[in-house]
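Example 391.
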Amino acid sequence: MTGDTWAVHGGNRPDETTGAIRTPIAMANSYRLPADPTALAEDDPDLLVYTRESGVNQLGLQDKLAHAERGEAAAVFTTGMAALHGAFFTILAPGDHVIVSDIVYMGTFDLLTSLLPKKMGVQVDLVDITDLDAVRAVIRPSTKLIHTEVICNPDPKVADVAALARIAHGAGALLTVDSTFTPPPLMRPLDHGADLVMHSLTKYINGHGDAMGGVAIGDRDLVDQIKFGALHHVGGAIAPFNAWLIMRGSLTLPLRLQRHCENAQAIAEFLASDPRIDLVAYPGLAGDPHHASASVQLTGGYGGIVSFAIAGSHQDRVQFIDDLRLITSAVSLGHDETLIAYEHYPPERAAGFREPFGDHGLIRLAVGLESAKDLIADLDAALTTVYGPRT
Ligand SMILES: Cc1ncc(COP(=O)(O)O)c(C=O)c1O
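Predicted structure in complex with pyridoxal-5'-phosphate:
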């Protein structure tokens, strides 16, 4: 089955009792136990007993996502952060060393650089993940994990997943990859050698800005460890309704991604040719330093995130955001509607950013599914109000 067909049919479990052709939402905390529960297969983490551990909507979604990423198994969680935490919590032990991209989503950054070192005693090195020599230079005998995003959030640098997998495996470590910006069919990190791929399902895979979820996908053995270790006992199971919503949203993922990518490319090109803009970072631009790496790894487009910087004062940039009429100022990404966020980070977090993102702040545009023409008109009008007409 091709990915497009799988997106429509994968993971769906028609209802035996009613004949409903879509899996109904099972809002039940428990499933019927046999009179003799000792006969249950205790080594099956997906056993239908209790919804904190498993549920039919969760199982269908796991099935769908595992196949979409060409992994053996998937563990779905209540949020992307829960999936990331579940994976790190399972893989790492006190004293282990982790190498992490110096640009990753803020929650991941804090989890890996602050919370896990304090609570679990892991040691962490932040590196420019696009500099493979820098990655090799910080490997230690205790290195257990390299973690990166394919396209990094919020400065969209592009990691070379196959090269990182070789470095990790050469050191006896694992490579985990957050592919939230690049869901299938854009990229399948497991095909490039990653050991585990994670997504915030909240973003493109659900796609409608109305449900949160997360997933970790990889070999069955590792995924089962994550389920037993970090899902069953730590909690974080997805609600059946959210699993159902994400399943429904994911039906149109390939089509939506195509539109996200086309719109983002058009907007990035518009901004890059606009003298009012200081810097546009989008791997789809021929002049972007990450274009070549993205072109080798991605199929069908360069994602929906365009980050840019505008000169002028802080107040000018606030005014620009305020003057947008169609584009909404809000965090998150991968929604049907276009979202924009004017983001400022502390120096230690912005150290790896391209300049002037550190100085001017970074404006992250999460391009949606509207007409590119309308989005460009909205950006142009707001820029004109603050900075004067495009010359
Ligand atoms: C790349 C990336 N990974 C993980 C997350 C966390 O996902 P969630 O908000 O579903 O917990 C985000 C959230 O923005 C993200 O952008």
